[in-house]
Amino acid sequence: MSQAYIVQAVRTAGGRRNGKLSGWHPVDLAAQVLNALVERSDIDPAQVDDVFMGCVSQVGEQATNVARNAVLASRLPESVPGTSIDRQCGSSQQAVHFAAQAVMSGVMDVVIAAGVESMSRVPMFSPNALAQKAGMGYYQSPAMNKRYNGIEFSQFMGAEMIAKKYGLSKLQLDEYSLQSHQRGIAASQAGVFKDEILPIEIRNAEGEGTGEWHTVDEGIRFDATLEGIQNVKLLQEGGVITAANASQVCDGATGVMIVSEKALKALGLKPLARIHHMTMIGHDPVIMLEAPLPATERALKKAGMQIDDIDLYEVNEAFAPVPLAWLQALHADPAKINVHGGAIALGHPLGASGTKLMTTLVHALGQRGKRWGLQTMCEGGGMANVTIIERL
């Protein structure tokens, strides 16, 4: 089978809710990433066969095929199509899988996998909230309710369930959260994000440039302390989840360029990594966030690998119990996980997080001279994607 190679990977620095990226229309923000991928690869934009773009809240400014709209707002020609993907938090990781599959099948040679989410301008849960307000019903159908005895699917409750199932205390969650900030601080101050972050001019509420540039993940709390994290109010009495041990609301756009071996040679491109394996699974939608555990086990088995073969892991920090349960179940090395911080510190721009994690993983492998990387993330509805890459 043909191979699929990553030749470019970029992301914006994360923006806090109503923060430094909130002045950007998400379509225009995504267009900046598309432009950067083409410019950094130094290819004719017309060489791009397709754009797959993840986005969860596809309503308002992110509606009507945000991927195609981003192409039309970019320097790519009109001949480049685009399609939007919603696999919840794994949307742009799925974009990577679709792009790699298109290249490996021989159907396409140059594909961009990307993601965008403006959680400031299109708040989380907007599609459901607006639909219910307009009297258009609710996504959980009578048949779904019958099958699951009327249980309301909730990622928050799933996080509480995982913490209980794997015996994780609030102190463990809070200590992990502090570690995420500490690793993010260290990475930011050491300049390790420099090559992966695309500087974006900050715009005001009217969309006008301010002359200032956004280059540092806005969610990192450089003054984070364990005491401060521990004092954040519980989201449920008797529970263990707080806003401090969960991912941060975030604005951002991210993307990777994936090409065939034919394009690699014809266009004179240098590969950063090769897509080695891809797995997707469905799992229990009630506990919901546990899917990365069996998904990783399946991926390693199919790839003929052991967890110790992997040099670095990116496991999305939707809630602290997720990576901690993953480490426990896989008997994985905690020194290898989210080495530059995760979503608790850097933010979780929903549909953009898949290619955000992939961008950080590709660059981290290169900086550390490591070979194998594994990325996984929990997804609404009880699903997970796993991607194993080989640095070249």
Notable traits:
392 residues; alpha/beta; nine-stranded mixed beta sheet; two-stranded antiparallel sheet; 13 helices; Thiolase_N; Thiolase_CS; Acetyl-CoA C-acyltransferase; acetyl-CoA C-acyltransferase activity
Helix-strand category: alpha/beta
Q: What is the overall silhouette? A: globular
End-to-end Cα distance? 18 Å
What gyration radius follows from the Cα positions, in whole Å?
A: 20 Å
User: Care to count the β-strands?
Assistant: 11
Assembly classification: single chain
The largest pleated sheet is described as:
9 strands, mixed
Fraction in beta strands? 15-25%
Could you give the order of strands across the largest sheet?
A: 3-2-4-7-1-8-11-10-9
Instruction: Return residue spans where pLDDT drops below 50 for at least 5 consecutive residues.
Output: none
